[in-house]
Amino acid sequence: MKMTFRWYGPKDSITLRDIRQIPGMTGVVTAVYDTPVGTVWSRESIAALSAQCKEAGLEMEVIESVPVHEDIKLGRPTRDGLIENYCETVRRLGEVGVKCICYNFMPVFDWLRTNLHTEAADGSNSLSYRHEEILALDPKHLSLPGWDESYTPDELQDLLAAYEGMTHETLFGNLVYFLERVIPVCKEAGISMAIHPDDPPWDVFGLPRIISCAEDYERLFAAVPDNENGITFCTGSLGAGRENDLVKMAYDYAKRGKIHFAHIRNIEYANDLDFRETGHLTAGGSLDIYGIVKALVEGGFTEYVRPDHGRNIWGEDGKPGYGLFDRALGACYLNGLFEAIEKGEKNK
């Protein structure tokens, strides 16, 4: 297992020096953030990122993410050119030693929350989701935390209109079309594709979600069986779906070599749909983080891990979900779990 940390590039308030000081940290998960979606990443930008990481003593083997253009998801005539651009970026990432690309195929929004600063009893704050608040929103006049600056009102309405009538079957077919063209390039570049599950794992605003449960994964693996076609096992996203047995899924997919990357975090259920994000410990939320890590180890998982969304604690006013302190604590907790369980397995 390699412990990694999300880093938003040179403009991130969290420095590579900060990350390097977290015990057990081997690398960062990052991306080129100043290039429009659908455009080929320049070799200069990729090389500059890689050089900064190496200088700090950190690997850059995971990219999160190379975004998939909405025209590819929609299956528009422009998709072939955009997929070729994607493939060229994959080739260039392979040249600097990248091994894994985390990506998603969620229409319009790649995550949804209703509050980015929900305060807990201990004074920390974190992201949360309340389904009734989502249902109360007018899709024609959406205002969503974290997305208000991503699209203009007109851009958002145009995108939502473009997806009207989009079925789960059509969206899934567009994903398969994309992967059938990208995976052969990944084989040549030595890179695995790790699809991130839907967050939350149910349809919202009429937008179909197609990577939400074990049934969806089986369908994906059957359609594109290559080893390079795998998943990002995100416990928080999958865990929001109460029907998902995360311990079983962790073991099964680790055993089959399908988990190329793991995002590990905890959430606390409020009811059948609502939740808030918590600290990483099992005791902090509703997910069995110990059981999940144990299942990963027993399944033979040896790939990349990162502590996922953390709280803002100790007065830190960090990027929601991506402050330094709580994710550093999460990394130490996860390293401890992996070490203890791995040593226990060896001594059996």
Q: What is the quaternary state of this protein? A: single chain
The name of the CATH superfamily reads Divalent-metal-dependent TIM barrel enzymes
How many domain units?
1
Distance between the termini: 20 Å
Classified by CATH, the class is Alpha Beta
Which band does the percent of strand residues land in?
15-25%
CATH fold-level label: TIM Barrel
Number of helices: 12
What is the 3D shape?
Answer: globular
Gyration radius (Cα, Å) is 19 Å
The largest β sheet comes out as: 8 strands, parallel, barrel
Q: Could you say what the CATH architecture is?
A: Alpha-Beta Barrel
**Average residue pLDDT:** 95
Number of E-type strands: 12
Please tell me about this protein's structure:
It is a single chain. A hairpin with a 5-residue loop joins strand 5 and strand 6 (125-129). The mean pLDDT is 95. The chain has helices at 16-20, 43-55, 70-74, 79-95, 131-135, 153-162, 168-189, 214-223, 235-239, 246-255, 289-298, 325-346; strands at residues 2-6, 25-30, 59-64, 100-103, 115-119, 125-129, 192-195, 229-234, 259-264, 267-269, 275-277, 304-307. By secondary structure, the protein is of the alpha/beta class. It has a single domain (2-346), classed as Alpha-Beta Barrel (TIM Barrel), CATH 3.20.20.150. Helix 4 packs parallel to helix 7 (168-189) and helix 10 runs parallel beside helix 11 (289-298).
